[in-house]
Amino acid sequence: MIASSYAGIALALLAATSYNVGLIQEKRALGRMPALDLRRVPRVIATLLADPAWLAGFALMLLGLACQIVVLTFEPVSVVQPVLASGVALVLVLSRLVLRERLGAVEFWCVAAMAVSVILLAASAGRAGGGAGHHVNPGWMAAVAIPSAVIGLLVGVSPLRRRSRAVSAGVCFGIGTGLLYGVAALAIKGLSGILTGHHGDVRIVTGILSSPYLYVLAGCSAAAMLLYQVALQSCRASIVVPVSNVTGSVYFMITGTWLFHEHLPSSPAKLGLRLAAIVVAGFVLVTLSRQAAEEPEPDSAPVPGLLADPRRQ
Length: 313
Hints:
Elements: H1 2-30, H2 41-49, H3 52-71, H4 77-85, H5 87-97, H6 105-123, H7 138-157, H8 166-197, H9 201-210, H10 212-234, H11 237-259, H12 268-294
Helix pairs in contact: 1-3, 1-4, 1-5, 3-8, 4-11, 4-12, 5-6, 5-11, 6-12, 7-8, 7-10, 8-10, 8-11, 11-12
């Protein structure tokens, strides 16, 4: 059990690394594209799919999601999600090295704190009380997921309906996409139960294709992805990424642990280590979000999007 926990943390780190490297690659590709206009979704999709650099980043993000599905089959949300959240630190490092953005003292210490959080999670791996849940009440899942997705969509599109400064738009984009990705993560958790509850390739494929979670995952991920592309193109990644991650992480950890009836470790020492890791990860994400929102805004131009003035394109 302990060995599987270490393997789960390693796989979650791989998922976070692949996903966030893909995110940085997409950011680079978007910088060379014309402004995306979500009034013309087919044109946006065609523009994205025609860019090999963006496709490479998207493929890495899909690999990260696949690793996330696998690791959620044998590790609880309280272990997996803080590790996935540590990807924010990776984004900051890659932003400095690849995008040439400055990494300040606060960001440096946040990177170090995220590393400590992962170490604490590894130390909290234990045999009792920390198993992954695979079953959920469909009624409760719908009652939680549907309103969350609607709220996320409304908040996410709000900067596209009015003239917004990039900082406030970035926060709205982050909250909206965070909720949508959080609902998608619940669907991923639901799909992970199919991998453990079915035997044989045919039954697994049939179970996945017939599961409503697949289509919830596809719908929420598609909506969040389109909003995220506009957000990355029109706002600073240092705002959008931390806010989206803290929203999605907190949402998924709270709702996922409750809906899937998962338990924290029964050992007081290991429970303390895991709770400390969660608190450290959450504190770092909140700190990064607040710092980004308090930075001076260099550009007050409206965010292009759903209701942008065509004469400005």
